[in-house]
Design a protein that fits this description.
Belongs to the YciI family. With 94 residues, this protein is an alpha+beta fold. Helix content is 30%, strand content 28%. It has 3 helices and 4 strands. A hairpin with a 5-residue loop joins strand 2 (35-40) and strand 3 (46-51).
């Protein structure tokens, strides 16, 4: 799976202006089964998306569709989950 860390480089007012289309983008890829979880960082300096295993070029194409590309930088880390608590056991091997 991938951990995608978004860090805002524009003021939060500009982020807010793109929030609804960003949520629609998230909804589309949750429905498609590409995303596992997503949420804001605290403090609100960006967000995190957990994405299922896929070809990296496909992930990059999905991320390029996010309206937040105008206001955030993306750092992508591939994570091979090998251990998890019972509550997160479904993540092993994703």
């Amino acid at each position: 799976m991938y951990i995608v860390s978004l860090s805002y480089f524009r003021p939060v007012e500009e982020v807010e202006a793109l929030l609804e289309p960003h949520i629609q983008w998230l909804d589309r890829y949750f429905a498609a089964g590409a995303f596992i979880a997503a949420g804001r960082k605290d403090p609100r300096t960006g967000g995190i998306v957990l994405a299922k295993e896929m070809d990296r070029a496909r992930l990059d194409a999905i991320l390029a569709e996010d309206p937040f590309v105008a206001v955030a930088n993306y750092e992508v880390t591939k994570l091979n989950v090998t251990r998890a608590t019972d509550d997160f056991a479904a993540l092993v091997g994703i």
